[in-house]
Specification:
The complex is a heterodimer.
Chain A (H helix, E strand, L loop, with lengths): L10 H10 L3 H16 L12 H16 L16 H21 L10
Chain B lengths: L13 H20 L2 H16 L9 H30 L9 H4 L7 H19 L3 H12 L4 H8 L3 H19 L4
Classes of the chains: A mainly alpha, B mainly alpha.
Chain lengths: 114, 182
Amino acid sequence: MSRPDNEHDTPRALFERASERLDQGTAFRLRRAREAALQARPEKRPAWGVPAGAFAAAVLALGLAWWLPGREATAPIEPGALAGEDIDALVLAEDAELYAWLAEAPVAAPGGRQ
Amino acid sequence: MPFDAAPDAAPASLEAFLASVERRGFRMAELALGHREDALDAVQEAMIRLVGYRDRPASEWPPLFWSILRRQVTDRHRRNAVRRKVMAVLGRAEDEREDPLEMLPDPGEDPARRHADGAAWQALGRAVRALPRRQREAYLLRELQGLDVASTAIAMGCSEGSVKTHLSRAMAALRKHLEDWR
């Protein structure tokens, strides 16, 4: 690793210096981001604001539960049984696992193996 | 040894708190992600989400902010890994990365010093990004950000003992690189 001029310099000192001496453009954008965040109102998601993907998944699940044979004993799922937050949480959990898996999954190079 | 640079006094307002952490948050995200635009996005999103907790006691803002930012960085890190794989499959080059010297501009500073800082910053980023995720988080939050062990544990969502373990392993992995700074 490159040795800074100051032989007593440390990663922490470099980090402190980098944080204090931010270029004006980045500092300006951070200031704007802060102002925008403070002016933003917390989002209140309406009850019907379920993402399209989650809605489609819920409809598919309901359809399969109704259609599959041998499932008569299964209590039908009420459309309102899954709250929007529950569906969101399920979808987010799926996304997180998908991203984690994709990030670690081996990828075949084009024209070759693995 | 890690230090405790996190301010003890509760911030006077949420704006004052955000102003006090935005630059350090940006630098932390930049080191972890290696991409300035991603780092800016992560900090902006973390600030927006923290505002949703503005009614919480001010003493809770610091661990909340670092916890939110840590998750933002993790999400982007994974997305970037996926994007790199997709780009590799498609046979396309990875996104252009910024010049590290442009990340540390200080017009009034000695150009040689600025060049050395830019190179050191780039090397530090490479070393940090090579660490396993939890070790990287412990190193960034505890060692560079200066949070105490308890705040780091809250931000990482683990026990204080785990923080110490992750940090110890991170320091051991980085020892080779850190020797250049001693």
